[in-house]
Structure formats: structure tokens, C-alpha cells
């Protein structure tokens, strides 16, 4: 019987999987294969939490396959060598996989396609990056015209259902996935396509309609929580987009429709950053804007450690970093606040923060993470102006108005009065003693004065621009 390999990468799902559909249409037997690539598993930006989440997703995928008469084949090693061996071992005539946008993935796939029969299909994004070009054939570097182009293209078909049955593949040796120590993040995010579908359905049924207002409130459960599932393709970008548009059609009023459009816009930002990485791979190593590549960053290791451990003395920053370290996830609003603090208040190179996020985020995606950091640092495509510097006190008051987020993630501040929760250093001595929260002992004093740091950052950014 004719057999082909379905090479699984960032598509840990059976439903709406274009690579799987192409494989099923090309042969009698489809062999599902996942290759543990040592270069990715031991990368400086690898996250044990993220790997554990991925392993859980692979186990769930294997379970789903077994219910349909198939099973997952796991191998470890260089992808080219593993695929070469598998093609000989199974007499597979073709390999189908979902195209990716990272420089490593494209280089890897280019090498393999020169030697083996590899076909790549869309799927990481709704629209492949090479289709989102200006009329002159150049890539977009500003979000708004990119978004207009994105909207002008029709969604490529209704999401595909999961196959009901597979032809039994040959019996092949397969590695067992190691049981990594379970982190706190596992209680927040269960891996797998089933969990992704549950979260999507729950969000589309209710929270999406209030998303415009609720998405920035860090004390509310106002986001979809789908980013880790989109990162590993446990949910397809096309299905998320399709679900949003169906929700928009059911919206009962303008505010509800706006909530849907706001979430859809976030999905388009994801596509924008993927497209930027595809066309400008150098952004992983340097600022997109050449005029801001010579900022004189501070080599402040103590400051970086205080930031990474949530000990800056600014409650909203510390709560966010504690959330990241404990859960492997961080609300998007506080991603911006913490990034701004590291880059603009401490004047520490944005690339150090970008790497730290990648080492801890369950949804750590090279394109989106890089795009977010460059936006906040004012150095990326369509970035925030360099003079936009978030005030951590005002941001805390605005987006955690009832202090629930801070009190949850910074327990040292749980007993202090509301009047001082965002500025604990302003507590009189007697209040500090009464609450058991002495600044400098039980909770750190601010490691930098925001107003002074802001002025210094503006001087350095202006200098960097003017020296070009």
C-alpha cells in the first residue's frame, strides 16, 4: 500500500490540519511522525514549561490517533536524518508538513526539500506570508495597511473536520516522551486539542463580546487564554478566525460586535508579526529600525535580576513577573508594562527581556514575542514611539483598580491599605509596622525613580537617533 509521512511540527491537532488533509489525499496509509529536534530542545531560549506543555499535547494527539486506528511515531535526532531513515524504513513516497516562518525552520525545510520529497502546506497563519504583499511586491511594515490587505483576502475555506478513521500504519519503533516535572503552569493550561476547543467554545460563547473593555484588565478573566494552543497548533489560526467571524454575525449590539473585532484584530497582529519575521529574519538579533540600534544599554545585572524575580519595588511590575514565573503565562497588558520598565526605566537591552520571556512563556513564539518587545522598545515595525514610556504606578491603578492582581501575585502586599497598594513606599512607618510590610525588608523599595529614569531614557533614545 502507498504510504506517506505526516511530519508534525506546530500542528498538534487532527481538525483543520491542511498538512494532514494533503497526506490523507495522497496515499492509503499516513504515518504520523514527530521528531524531537535536539537543536530546539536545548536552545538558549527553550523553556522546560513549554516543552512539558508540548509533550502533554503530543500525548493527547497520540491518544486521539489511537482512537482512530493509528498512533504517533516519535523519533529524536536531526530531522533530515530521521526523515531519511523513515522514508527507507516505511517506503514512504512523500512527506507532508505545515510551513513555518522562523529562520531556523525555513533553513531546515529548505535543506530537507532538496534531498527528500517534502511538500509544505499553509496553516501556522491564516494567510501565508508570501501572499500578504503591497501592490509593488514588497512586504508591509505598518500594521494598518497590512490589516486592510489581510481583510481583503477571503478566508481560505471552512475549517476542516478531524478524520474519523485512519488506515493502520506499519508497526514502528517510537520513543516514549519523558515525564517532565509538573510545574504550576500545568494547573493553568492543560495540553491538547480537546482543551483548546473547550477554551475556544467558552470564549466565543461569552467573553468575546466584552473583550474590548475586559482585555486590558489584569484583575479579570477577560482574555481567551488561547495563545499557548495557537503557539503549538492545538488550535488552528483559521478555526480561531472562523469562530470569531461567526461570533460577530451573532452579536446583538455594536459593543458586542466591537468586542469580536478587537479580538480578531489581535489574531491579525499575530499574523503581522509572523509575516515580519518571514521577510525580515534579522529582527531576531537586532532592532528593525536602524536608527535605534546604537542605544547605550546599561549592563545592570542586579537590575535585571530584580526585574526577573519580581523585586523592583513597583507592584504591578513585580506581580506580572511573579505571574510569569509561577504560571508560564502573562497577561498582554502587563507584558507591555514589564517590557517598558526593563527597557525604559532600567535601560537594559530589550533582547535580554525578550530571551527571558522565551525561556518562561508557554506561548513563547519567536515572531510574536520579538514583535511585542520591539514594539514596546520603540524599535520595531509599527512600534510605539520611543518617547512612550509606561508609568508603572498609573498603569497599575488603571488596569488593576481593585488591586486583586497585585494582592494575588505579591502576597507581601496583601494586607496593606488600598491607598498604598500601588505606591507602598509612601506608607508611613506606623502603617508599615501595623501591616507587617516594612519597605526595604518585607518588600523592596523602588530600585529606580521612574520620573528620573524616564528623562534619562529620553536623552539616550534621542542621542541614538541623532548619531545616525
Full CATH superfamily name of the largest domain: DNA Cyclobutane Dipyrimidine Photolyase, subunit A, domain 3
Number of folding domains? Answer: 3
Number of helices: 21
Task: Using the CA coordinates, give the radius of gyration.
Answer: 24 Å
In total, the number of strands is 5
Characterize the biggest β-sheet.
5 strands, parallel
Structural class: mainly alpha
The best one-word shape is globular
Helix content: 40-55%
- The proportion of strand residues reads 5-15%
Mean pLDDT: 94
Main sheet strand line-up: 3-2-1-4-5
Distance between the termini: 64 Å
CATH class of the largest domain: Mainly Alpha
Residue stretches low in confidence (pLDDT < 50, at least 5 long) are none
Write up this protein.
- With 468 residues, this protein is mainly alpha-helical.
- It has three domains: 3-124, HUPs (Rossmann fold), CATH 3.40.50.620; 126-154 and 193-279, Serine Threonine Protein Phosphatase 5, Tetratricopeptide repeat; 290-466, DNA Cyclobutane Dipyrimidine Photolyase, subunit A, domain 3 (Orthogonal Bundle), CATH 1.10.579.
- Helix content is 49%, strand content 6%.
- Strands 3-2-1-4-5 form a five-stranded parallel β-sheet, with helices on both faces.
- Helix 14 (315-327) crosses helix 15 (332-345).
- The longest helix is centred in the middle third of the chain and has 26 residues, at 254-279.
- The protein is globular and about 80 Å long.
- The termini are far apart.
- The model has no long low-confidence stretch (mean pLDDT 94).
Amino acid at each position: 500500500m502507498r504510504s506517506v509521512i505526516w511530519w508534525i511540527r506546530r500542528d498538534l491537532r487532527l481538525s483543520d490540519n491542511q498538512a494532514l488533509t494533503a497526506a490523507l489525499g495522497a496515499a492509503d496509509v499516513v504515518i504520523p511522525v514527530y521528531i524531537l529536534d535536539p537543536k530546539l530542545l536545548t536552545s538558549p531560549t527553550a523553556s522546560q514549561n513549554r516543552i512539558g506543555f508540548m509533550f502533554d499535547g503530543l500525548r493527547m494527539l497520540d491518544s486521539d490517533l489511537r482512537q482512530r486506528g493509528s498512533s504517533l511515531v516519535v523519533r529524536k535526532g536531526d530531522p533530515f536524518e530521521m526523515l531519511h531513515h523513515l522514508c527507507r524504513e516505511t517506503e514512504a513516497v512523500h512527506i507532508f508538513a505545515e510551513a513555518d516562518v522562523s529562520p531556523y525552520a525555513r533553513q531546515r525545510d529548505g535543506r530537507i526539500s532538496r534531498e527528500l520529497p517534502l511538500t509544505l502546506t499553509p496553516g501556522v497563519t491564516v494567510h501565508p506570508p508570501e501572499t500578504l504583499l503591497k501592490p509593488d511586491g514588497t512586504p508591509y511594515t505598518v500594521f494598518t495597511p497590512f490589516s486592510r490587505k489581510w481583510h481583503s483576502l477571503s478566508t481560505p475555506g471552512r475549517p476542516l473536520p478531524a478524520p474519523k478513521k485512519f488506515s493502520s500504519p506499519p508497526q514502528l519503533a517510537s520513543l516514549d516522551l519523558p515525564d517532565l516535572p509538573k510545574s504550576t503552569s500545568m494547573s493553568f493550561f492543560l495540553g491538547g486539542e480537546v482543551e483548546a476547543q473547550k477554551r475556544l467554545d467558552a470564549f466565543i460563547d461569552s467573553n468575546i463580546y466584552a473583550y474590548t473593555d475586559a482585555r486590558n484588565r489584569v484583575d479579570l478573566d477577560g482574555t481567551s487564554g488561547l495563545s499557548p494552543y495557537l503557539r503549538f497548533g492545538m488550535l488552528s489560526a483559521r478555526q480561531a478566525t472562523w469562530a470569531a467571524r461567526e461570533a460577530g454575525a451573532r452579536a446583538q449590539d455594536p459593543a458586542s460586535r466591537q468586542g469580536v473585532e478587537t479580538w480578531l484584530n489581535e489574531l491579525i497582529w499575530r499574523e503581522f508579526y509572523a509575516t515580519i519575521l518571514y521577510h525580515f529574519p534579522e529582527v531576531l538579533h537586532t532592532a528593525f529600525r536602524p536608527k535605534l540600534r546604537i542605544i547605550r544599554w546599561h549592563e545592570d545585572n542586579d537590575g535585571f535580576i530584580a526585574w526577573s524575580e519580581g523585586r523592583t519595588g513597583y507592584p504591578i511590575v513585580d506581580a506580572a513577573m511573579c505571574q510569569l514565573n509561577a504560571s508560564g503565562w502573562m497577561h498582554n497588558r502587563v507584558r507591555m508594562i514589564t517590557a517598558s520598565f526593563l527597557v525604559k526605566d532600567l535601560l537594559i537591552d530589550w533582547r535580554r527581556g525578550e530571551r527571558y520571556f522565551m525561556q518562561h512563556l508557554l506561548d513563547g513564539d519567536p515572531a510574536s514575542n520579538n514583535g511585542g518587545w520591539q514594539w514596546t522598545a520603540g524599535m520595531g515595525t509599527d512600534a510605539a514611539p520611543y518617547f512612550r514610556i509606561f508609568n508603572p504606578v498609573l498603569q497599575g491603578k488603571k488596569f488593576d483598580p481593585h488591586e486583586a492582581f497585585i494582592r494575588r501575585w505579591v502576597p507581601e502586599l496583601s494586607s496593606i491599605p488600598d491607598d498604598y497598594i500601588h505606591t507602598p513606599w509612601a506608607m508611613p512607618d506606623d502603617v508599615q509596622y501595623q501591616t507587617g510590610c516594612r519597605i526595604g525588608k518585607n518588600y523592596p523599595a523602588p530600585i529606580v525613580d521612574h520620573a528620573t529614569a524616564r528623562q534619562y531614557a529620553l536623552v539616550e533614545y534621542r542621542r541614538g537617533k541623532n548619531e545616525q
